[in-house]
Specification:
heterodimer; A: eight-stranded mixed beta sheet; 4 helices; B: 283 residues; 0% strand; elongated
Chain lengths: 313, 283
């Protein structure tokens, strides 16, 4: 009897444990689902944008939509319209709509050279007019690898043609490199003859130069006398000039050592301080404590020097 | 058996709790908006620093900072912020007595939403340059742009009063300044209220209403004292001296001496000289 009672109480205990386990499991599942929905942004406010393109190539549902490299949403639908065009609907986080201007362009490009295709919203120049919910934006495709290869081929082909032409001309026996070498050989012979004639003429010039040097020697003697006179008067003048220069040098040296470092240091310190303060303000957690300075309206004073009430001029 | 069942249930419970915590950790961080770019933050800081200096009365430093803010905002292609800073630069230049430079700055502002403040500063600069006709022409435009519900209506009327005063029309000055007073009071523009009182006092003095002129000048002085503006306090005392002298009141000398002592203490050489001359002319 006592064995049966003990078994009944064990079964009841097992039932209670199982019920508790199932209840906790259910609760955990609900919480996990809620967490996943929260993470997936189901409770986030979103905005819809769209564009129309000729082809859906490289565009697919769920594809990333970015602004300045940040993922802000995804492609919601890609549909083929009755007129053969493709309509694409984007769903982006409503918080980021402040970056989407009316003249923004959606650009399809590859991440890196061979990466996956992403849609990037490029804001237009008019930052004052923002796009509304469900606005239609312009669309463009960035050049892919094929386009780049075609462009490269178009540029290289004419260059290859030119090289072919040049090498053909060089190999020509009448107009090319062999004919040119023959002409060079002839020119060298003519040059030898010219050098012989030149040597004779230089000998003649040497005779004339000897006479000229004799005249120059006489003039140099006269210059020597003048320099002796100048030499006797110059030292005193030079001493005075030296004194002045030394004073100026001393002042300049002092200024050179004291003024520029002060100027440079001051400028550098100011720049450093600004950099540090700006850096600190943008760093976590300080940036959460400091509000970005809002533009302030200066107090109005149409007559700051109280001259408006003076007698009319 | 009972213990084994309990142990198993407890183990499952702990495992589920762990999984739950891990998943909650993954799901709880929503993406944050991108932070404000560093250069834009720097431009905003420079602008705020300039505004602080303007409030402190260091107009020279304020003008330098506003000019830097204009450059920074232009480098970010933020034309609207650059225009806003240009107007503030012009305001600092007007406070420095550089009306021509201020006019040049305001001429560069083309933003439609800043039309009224731009015109207000242009009128102010033109009046400082004694170009009354040009100021009147702009005031006509302002009158059309800034209707009855316009927040700047009081300042427009005050500038109309100043233009009338510069044109030598005391009666019109009085009408316009009287109309400006309640509007300026409603906007709590204390500086401008004092300016309006001073104009009213000068106009009433010209219209030979000395007692009303004295009341107005006293009102201007009270506000300028509260705002702690030595230059304006000196001007108020000089005006009070003029009113008393016109009324042949022997206290005129005392008012001029008061003006002189304030000017000397504040280092206002020109005003101190003016007070000394007025004292000499007072019997």
């Amino acid at each position: 009897m006592s064995i049966l009672i003990e078994q009944d109480s064990d079964v009841a205990l097992l039932h209670r444990g199982t019920r508790r386990f199932l209840l906790i499991g259910l609760l955990a599942t609900v919480l996990i689902v809620a967490a996943i929905f929260l993470r997936q942004g189901l409770f986030r406010q979103t905005a819809a944008l769209g564009f129309v393109t000729d082809s859906a190539q490289d565009i697919s549902k769920g594809q990333s939509v970015k602004i300045a490299g940040f993922r802000v949403g995804s492609v919601e639908t890609v549909t083929l319209r009755a007129d053969g065009k493709v309509e694409v609907q984007l769903e982006i986080d409503a918080n980021y709509m402040r970056f989407v201007t009316r003249d923004a362009v959606v650009e399809l490009h590859k991440e890196g050279l061979v990466g996956s295709a992403v849609l990037e919203i490029m804001p237009g120049p008019d930052k004052t007019r923002l796009a509304a919910n469900e606005a239609k934006l312009a669309f463009t495709r960035a050049d892919g690898l094929t386009a780049m290869a075609n462009s490269l081929r178009d540029k290289i082909l004419p260059i290859l043609g030119d090289i072919k032409l040049i090498t053909g001309t060089l190999a020509d026996s009448r107009q090319g490199l062999p004919a040119t070498l023959g002409q060079v050989r002839e020119a060298t012979g003519s040059l030898n003859t010219l050098l012989k004639t030149g040597n004779q003429q230089i000998g003649d010039v040497g005779q004339a130069a000897k006479h000229a040097v004799g005249h120059v020697e006489e003039r140099l003697l006269q210059l020597d006398k003048t320099l002796t006179t100048v030499n006797s008067r110059l030292p005193a003048l030079l001493d005075k000039a030296q004194g002045i220069v030394e004073h100026v040098e001393k002042i300049t040296a002092d200024a050179e050592t004291s003024v520029p470092p002060l100027l440079h240091d001051g400028k550098a310190v100011a720049a450093d301080v600004r950099e540090i303060v700006t850096g600190a303000k943008t760093a976590w957690p300080i940036r959460n404590l400091i509000e970005t300075p809002a533009p302030q309206k200066l107090r109005a004073d149409s007559d700051p020097h109280a001259e408006g009430s003076l007698a009319p001029r | 058996m009972r213990r084994a069942v309990l142990r198993r249930a407890d183990l499952f419970f702990r495992l589920q709790l762990l999984v739950l915590l891990l998943l909650a950790g993954c799901g709880a961080s929503p993406p944050k908006p991108p932070p404000e770019p560093r250069l834009r933050l720097q431009a905003q800081e420079v602008e705020a620093s300039a505004a602080r200096r303007y409030v402190q009365g260091d107009y020279s430093a304020a003008a330098r900072h506003f000019a830097a803010a204009v450059r920074l905002h232009l480098s970010l292609d933020d034309v609207s912020a650059a225009a806003r800073n240009r107007l503030q630069l012009a305001q600092a230049q007007l406070a420095l007595g550089q009306a021509k430079k201020a006019l040049e700055q305001t001429d560069l502002v083309r933003e439609e939403n800043l039309q009224v403040p731009t015109l207000l500063l242009q009128v102010q600069a033109l009046l400082a340059l004694n170009e009354v006709d040009a100021a009147q022409a702009l005031l006509l435009r302002l009158d059309g742009l800034c209707g009855a519900s316009c927040a700047e209506r009081g300042r427009v009327r005050l500038l109309q009063a100043r233009a009338a005063w510069s044109g030598g029309d005391a009666a019109l000055t009085l009408t316009q300044a009287d109309a400006a007073l309640p509007l300026l009071r409603a906007q709590q523009e204390d500086h401008e209220v004092a300016n309006a009182w001073r104009l009213i006092a000068a106009a009433r003095l010209k219209l030979a209403d000395a007692s009303a002129a004295m009341q107005a000048a006293q009102s201007a002085l009270d506000i300028d004292r509260q705002l702690a503006l030595p230059e304006k306090i000196t001007r108020d005392w000089l005006l009070i001296g003029d009113i008393l002298r016109r009324a042949a009141n022997p206290d005129a000398g005392a008012a001029y001496r008061r003006a002189q002592s304030v000017a000397q203490a504040a280092g206002l050489e020109a005003l101190s000289q003016l007070a000394a001359e007025a004292l000499k002319e007072t019997p």
